[in-house]
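Can you give me the bound-state structure? Components:
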Amino acid sequence: MTAFTVTQLADTAHEVVEFAGDLDFAVIDEVTEQLEPVLQRVSGGLIVDLSQTTFLDSAGIKLLYDIHGALTARGQRLHVVVPAENLARRTLELTGTTESFAIYDDVESAAGESSG
Amino acid sequence: MSTAKVLLVGLGPPQRRSIERGARLAGDVDAIAVDPEDSLVAASAGDPPAAAVISDAVYDPIRLARELARIDREMAITVLASPDREDALRQSLRFAPFVTANTTTRRTTENEQLGVDVVEAAHAAVRRRGHRAIVAASNRLNVEQASPALHGEALGRLVESAPIGVLTLDSSLGVAGFNRYAAEVLGVTGSAIVGRPVVELLAEEDHGRLTSLLRAAGADEHIRPELLGRLREGREQFLEVLAGPAYSAAGDRGVLVVLSDVTERILAERSRQRAEDAQAFLAETGALLDASLDPDETLQRIASLAVPLRADVCVIDRLEEDGVIRGAAVAATDPEVARRVVEIRRHSPVDPDGSHPVARVLRSGSGEVLEELDENVYRDIAQSPEHYELMRSIGYRSAVTAPLAARGRKFGAISLFSAGSGRTYSAADLRILEDVARRAALALDNARLYARERRIAETLQRSLLPARLPDIPGIALAAHYEPGEGDVGGDWYDVIALDRGRVACVVGDIVGRGIHAASVMGQLRNAVRVYALEHSGAADVVNAVDRLSDSLGIGHMATLVYIVCDPQAGVLEISAAGHPPPLVVEADGTSRYLMVGRSGPVGVGLAGQHVAAREPFAAGSTVLAYTDGLIERRGAPLDEGLDKLAEVAVAAGHVAADELAARVMSAMRPGGQADDVALLVLQGERASARLKLSLPADTASVRAVRAELKRWLGDRLPAEDVYDIVLACSEACANVVEHAYALRRGELEVEGDVSASESTIVVRDFGRWRAPRSSNRGRGTPLMETIMDDVSINSGESGTEVVMRRSFRVPVPA
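Here's the bound-state model for the whole set.
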């Protein structure tokens, strides 16, 4: 199962959404629904943390593009965190997503980058 | 041959001396330490370990089990036990953690011989390393008699006050002298008996035998002790008499008679004999009640016992649950008569409301005597004209009928008839028959209750065993439980799926039988299930179970082996509490017993002391865990059973787990065995070049496919390649789940093939594949194409097949 947690990052205007487990087509509808209120209230920017994500498929990639689209329409930014050693990063590379979004190794650098 | 050390624990001085003597006879004895306070552990500390001889005077089964649990060496142990404790102590020996032991019982009375055996066992243990020889001697050692040298007056005083009768006789067998005890035994006083022929004093009957006996003694022959029975003041008295030649101070030849009053002993033996007869009768009844004998057969045997001793014809009728009376057993001096009686009961059954004695007896509950039978009576009780004719032609003269009733239940009636013998039955015959009938009815009721209890226990047992074993990727599992011939035992097995693809297997054995053992088994099984999920270490689980069994006051010893198998890491973790060692058969056909992680049984206060050990678990290897019923054969050494199990398991070769379990069961238990048996087979799948999965097309299956594929490719390719191929396959499977069957249920098939140079994955469905409706679903196929070198999608009437191929090559830098 995919664990879904949202945290407000201290001292920044960023919200962090963390997915643990397999982020695949089987859970995408449920995750989209849970994300809806988060996207509504985000003011600064959104960090999607995939550090604990063990598998990411094309449905997961589509979700990232959807989030990206929603945020850009409101002048906000999406930051994706996937450590280089996490195999889920392969999906981002294979789909060329690394070109489209800012990818960070950890939450701190994502937060620092976006506020600085 | 190395020298042996023998340590004697808790033995009395006479026992000690006897063993020391025998041990010296056997030679090569290094030292004999004596430490009655110390434990077996001290004996095991030396190198080589001392052979220990212990006595049940200081060892009860629990102390023995506890100390054995602390010994991790091969050593010889001899237990001196009285017959009533022998079994209990033997049980404790069985639970020794390192037991691959041969338990041998020597009913040794020759003390030196026992000492020789002890030393030989010690040598065997040292020599063979892998084995412990155990000798359990059933008989207590004889206590050596003191033999003080006494002369003259001192001897005279001693004889006078000795608790044994001494008589001296003159050459004509008249009494010359006697001591106090002899006078008491013979019931005479003063010197009135001096000069009287001893045969008159000693025996009331059979003067002849005694006279010739004493004459022979006088004539210098060796006389063995003789038993004389006599009546003294109307009571039976038994004397043991020893006689031999003797000479007076003047040199006259006479006879010395030594006698002791053994009346008490003889009477005790007699009553023991009577009790044994009753016991034998009960045992016979018990045998009749054996589950394999049906009640009708029991009744037939009873009928056969009655004829011809008590009757010419014996008929036993049963009252069925629906109220019908049915002839159940018939015996007659003439087989033809028996046949005709059987026939008439079938043809003209006894009317329960009628006037037949059986019906009357069943209604009233008390027996009846028909002293004189004649044609009038025949007519009165006949159930049909044919019945009347039969009675007339047999010529019944007298009859007696008693109800088969026990514990408020009526089972039928037993009737005796006389004919040709002319016997006439009386009230006394009725009393005897009623007694037999009561026993028979009790037997029937016991059989009924036993069958019910066994049914309950078996149902309980079955319901507590897992209905099915979990599916664990990479592991094949099979289990067998077979009840023994007697009561249901407390053997169980269980398999618990843990996280990270690990699995816990447990096989256990509650000491004891019947419903209670089965319910204790249920408690421990559940405890293991809970602790398996709570604790990650095998020793923690076993210690927690032991603590629980202490606090529940279950009061039962149990043995169990708990194995955690991690097929991905290739590791087994084993904790065996007093349990026989699991067997591992490797893919190459070698086998070994896992003599690691061993401790004493659960339920003897060892909580916290159970240990565990890790062992490699290679692909294609098989683990067999079992209860002792599988390897134990009455009268055969335990390691014979272990050797045979290894032989059978290896000979089976590469067969599926359930086939292996079936072969092992049939080879190890060709017939029914007294003990119940649980067997669990755990087989690591052999690394295969091909993968084939067939699953329902749903989201859960896609996750299962990913896990299986990852495991299958795991060892062959770098992690990145594995991830990529799994991703491509997952995309193809997601398409099947989302598009192929619309809302209907269907199948998803995945096949994989891998060679040194490339890997091919085929994903198949049997529905109608529709092209992706929008770009929302469109990323999957391009991703597949990015990852794989070739992707072809073939759609047809019967379904769609996606074939993906990827070559392994060193990636060319862009």
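A couple of observations. The interface with chain B takes residues 22, 24-26, 55, 57-59, 61-62, 87, 90-91, 94-95 of chain A (CB under 8 Å). Residues 58-73 of chain A form the longest helix (16 residues).
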